[in-house]
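Field: sequence (string)
Field: structure_tokens (string)

Example rows 1 and 2, in order.
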Amino acid sequence: MWQVTTIQLGYPGKSTHHGGLGWSTIGLARGAGRLVLLDTGGIPARRIINRAFAAQGIATTDITDVLITHLHHDHMINWPMFARATIHAPRADMEWALAQPDGSETVTETAVRALQACPRLRLFEAGCEVLPGIASAEYRGHTLHHVAFTLAGSPPTIFSADIAKNRVELATGEADMTMDATAHKASIARLRAAWDAVPGTVLMPGHDVPMVLVDGRPTPQGKLEAGITAWFGDDLSQTTYFDLTS
């Protein structure tokens, strides 16, 4: 049985002037004698990961496994932080990422190639049990071979990443940023059905807080937190804080 906590909360927004934010959910799962990271976040998440680990008395070298849902930069680029971990990535999505041209807006070619060469990489076929009690399933759309992980536990957890990135996509069945809108819509419907099939299941979307279904509605568990501090004054002591949650 797996216990899953959040290391970094995802954020349901995009930057208007500086590219995508890429603030994605990172999960930590304990069970079966393992310590498993679910996605890795983007480069800015390294500080968040280190602080969260220090607060829990664990080190990056304690991570036994890293599970990657898809090969977009904000979900996989930090895999080198975990020097002793087996890195589990979906074979089909890895092949897709390797085929992208240099300069792709969503795939970091250097990180993907380095992962391909890593002796700790384990490619898996979607639909298999990646680790004891952790099942994988392919949900096409956001990328052509995106996967979700379902972790057995009390409660069970679905780590869905960007199949449905936030509460709006979960509620409407429509997705922003998709490679195949028709397949993506069907994937969200399948995800909702899987979520509804086991009452009490926690779903962890890629860019929002964990949720449960209450009377059939996605209901956030916890408070969304995000903000920016900016320097517009005459010295470094003068800052302006922008709350990004309302």
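Row 2 begins here:
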Amino acid sequence: MPFKAPKTTVSGIALTGTAVATPARLAGDALGKAGSRDTLAQLSSAMSELKALAIQPMLQRAVDAINAEDFTTAETWIQQALERDERSGFGWYLLAITRERASDFASSVKAYEAALALIPEHAEVANDLGRLAFRMGMKVQAEKLFRHFLARHPGHPEAINNLGCALRDQRRFDDAIALLKPALGERPRNVQLWNTLGTVVAEQGDYPNAEIFFQESLRLDPDFYKSRYNLGNARLALGDAEGALEACEAALTRVPAGHERQMMRLARSTILIALGRIGEGWDEYESRLDPQFADTTHFLFERPRWEPGADLAGKSLLVCAEQGLGDEILFANVLPDVIQRLGPEGRLTLAVEPRLVTLFQRSFPRIRVCAHATHDVGGHTLRHAPAIQEELETFDLWTPIASLLREFRRSVEDFPAQVGYITPDPDRVAYWKQVLDEQAPAGPKVGLLWKSAVDKDARHRFFSPFEGWKPVLSVEGACFVNLQYGDCAAELAQAERDLGVRIWTPPGIDLKQDLDDIAALCAAMDLVVGFSNATLNIAAAAGTPTWLISVPGAWPRLGTDRYPWYPQVRTFTLAMFGQWDPIMAAVGEALAGYVSAREKS
């Protein structure tokens, strides 16, 4: 476009830059739609009062085009208006709406910022910009913008809901509850507020109360699909997978096409897998790739996609890893089968997280391993493999790695009994065994993992508070080894201060970055105990004896009481979220028995 946004800011709120969208498990997001009829009607009314506005007819035609869902025509009129008056706040607002509706979030943010700077009294701009910032994962900025709107429209239920969501996603649960409860006292029949309150307590792991709030929302409006879907998530967390599936499928009969429908399909896929309906689940798991799903990853490989049943013998196949680091390792379970299917004349290239390249190349010497690269462009996640981008035409087929499970892992019986499928460096394994023998305290070497370094998606509810580890750390005769990546100084100090237990930290290793050496360190352990995170997956995939503390509804258990991905893993499953004491006591009792048996052998 020949014009630029004015270089102005409002209230110190700056939204330009890169933001990573975070995936949503609960349906309780900021409300509103770019260019709703109510918003456009208010905008038209405001513009009609400006008699001297020469570009008003052009902007009105743009409004009419947006109402008709004709965004190309709308943007043509907006461009003409802004070419005449580049400081028209209404023009920038309409441009923001059209760009957002076209999923061009980066340009939309800039246009909203310009509009808010030029017409700050039109508070709806702040609400729309806040909603887009929320969608792009920029929760702090979203909070400021929702407060800006509420200052001009006190008590507005949509803005209260949106602010509550922003507070919740910053884990400021008490603030969110303090905001939502009085609002519900004034509007006890507002289904959105009941639903959002339910998501707040669910994020805290209080699923019994969350279920009550979702049920109240559904009593008021049985067709409110967000609460129906959230009720399913609460039931899953309470150990009722069948009830979760029923609620999720009921929500899907009501939700319109778009992001939320794909999110619910993705949730349904993991519920099916958790119920042991594995093949159906993997088929539905393809919803993660639907372009309507806001959190999808767009893979930049312009080659034919592999589909189940395709003949792979002698073909050249590109496989790109996906999801989080732990998932890349988990899904690699399928690679030996793919290599066999390609045959001696086939060629497999695997793109993985850069820190995994060396480990995977050693583990699978027949294949070529390179690094993938991931970028956020305008709120969209893009992934490619720079090392092979110039030779894409040489590949017959490509696929995201999890899609291969649709053919190779359709039942529990399809998971091999082989222990371990990645190969740590044997020299480094020997080195770490020597270090552990000479420098660590006496006793069986038990590696501990107690949290995830990913602080989003309320992931904390999948991990016991550190105090809950007391029954484990109180076991005498074990040497506890810190395998936990991220900042864990507080927990190490807490263990020594409160329990008199030293969790020994291995010297000279970065427990977050040195994944190849971490695999060797894990292989040198007698036992690894913890929750599912990247390092635990590395330990288990390397064949290390591993104890996993699992949660209700965890789909990787595949409807079993074990972890078929790693046959040697012993699983301890929580009965209900928040009830950590019994399961941690069970782990402690088992560890005491393990140490005693080792002493007698």
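free_text_note (row 2): The longest strand covers residues 347-352.
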